[in-house]
Design a protein that fits this description.
The strands form 2 sheets. This protein has a 6-stranded parallel sheet, sandwiched between helices. The protein contains 12 helices and 8 strands. Helix 1 crosses helix 12, helix 7 packs parallel to helix 12 and helix 10 runs parallel beside helix 11. It folds into 2 domains: 155 residues, 3-Layer(aba) Sandwich (Rossmann fold), CATH 3.40.50.1220; 76 residues, SIR2/SIRT2 'Small Domain'. The chain starts with 10 loop residues before the first helix and ends with a helix. It is an alpha/beta fold. Bound molecules: ligand BJW. The site of ligand BJW has 36 residues, from helix 2 and helix 12.
Length: 260
């Protein structure tokens, strides 16, 4: 596989992407790192300060709702203060290129930060929910603006309708993903010609299975990450580098290739 001097990815990846009719992408926390959102498992990640078993499961929430609500309020404040980076924007542009030639594109993200949508991605599935919504664990009613504002100030943790606890609309360990989300993502992965796995440690299932589904179905699968994930050896290509640096260059090469 030829890799031009200076490019962290192969010619094969550019050619495959240029020819692809169907492209699917999985992203994880790493794509938002350059926006200033901490990842989970890197040395400076969220779980170096907070233990996952204390915060990312429903038992922990029921044991200490104020702690967990406070942690999510803090993360919402972080996300509100940052912007999508060139990596998010390059994926939105890749989607436009594929859709323009009447191809199929799907971006499945594990992130709950909403940055892909803010960057303009439309064919998007949020596998692990979103920080922006909260709902009552008793009556499942979605929290309104007033209740959300109260949550941010550390006040009302309860649903005004039934006094149940309000929780963020994210997927914790042991919980099912949003209905149909994984099925849709798995279909797109299996049908893809090229699959990109970007900024994920690929340790949390079922999302981590998507690149492998794509590979098994015959797609060209590339991982973009400064580190090799546990599944990298099963993929076609590991592109070492930061998403916000690699993706804009990849898009530049793709534009040049398709214009030639
Ligand atoms: C860069 C970069 C840059 C840095 N550019 N890259 C045993 C085997 C298999 C499965 C299981 C098992 N035991 C239990 C399970 C199931 C469990 C699971 O997978 N556990 C494993 C940890 C073992 N999964 C579940 O429970 C899921 N549900 C489920 O399976 O339902 C079915 C079921 C139901 C009931 C009973 C049984 C089955 C749900 C998983 C939910 C995950 N939720 C979280 C929290 C979301 C809310 C929140 O944000 O607070 O999702 S956990 C956390 O991890 C978050 C993330 O989305 C997820 C993945 O993390 P991600 O994105 O990969 O981040 P990092 O930090 O790990 O990696 C960052 C990467 O970026 C690194 O590689 C860096 O190198 C890289 N990077 N800078 C590019 N600039």
């Amino acid at each position: 596989m030829h890799q031009p001097i200076g490019d962290p990815f192969s010619d094969a990846l550019v050619e495959r992407l240029a020819q692809a009719r169907r492209v699917a992408v999985l992203t994880g926390a790493g794509i938002s790192a350059e926006s200033g959102v901490p990842t989970f498992r890197d040395p400076d990640g969220l779980w170096q300060q907070f233990r996952p078993e204390e915060l990312a499961n429903v038992e922990a929430f029921l044991r200490n709702p104020v702690l967990v609500q406070g942690w999510y309020a803090h993360r919402r404040a972080v996300v509100d203060g940052v912007e999508p980076n060139p990596g998010h924007r390059a994926l939105a542009e890749l989607e436009q290129m594929v859709v323009k030639k009447r191809g199929a594109f799907l971006l499945a993200t594990q992130n709950v930060d909403g940055l892909h949508a803010r960057a303009g991605s439309e064919h998007l599935i949020e596998l692990h929910g979103t920080l922006t919504r909260s709902y009552c664990i008793a009556c499942e009613r979605e929290a309104n603006e007033t209740e959300l504002a109260a949550l941010e100030s550390g006040d009302a943790a309860h649903c005004p309708a039934c006094a149940g606890l309000l929780r963020p609309d994210v997927v914790w360990f042991g919980e099912m993903l949003p209905e149909g989300a994984m099925e849709h993502a798995a279909e797109a992965a299996a049908a893809s010609d090229v699959f990109l796995s970007i900024g994920t440690s690929a340790v949390v299932y079922p999302a981590a299975g998507l690149p492998l589904i794509a590979k098994q179905a015959g797609a060209y699968v590339a991982e973009i990450n400064p580190q090799r994930s546990d599944i990298a050896f099963r993929l076609d290509e590991h592109v070492r580098g930061k998403a916000g640096v690699v993706l804009p260059v990849l898009l530049e090469r793709l534009r040049a290739f398709t214009a030639a």
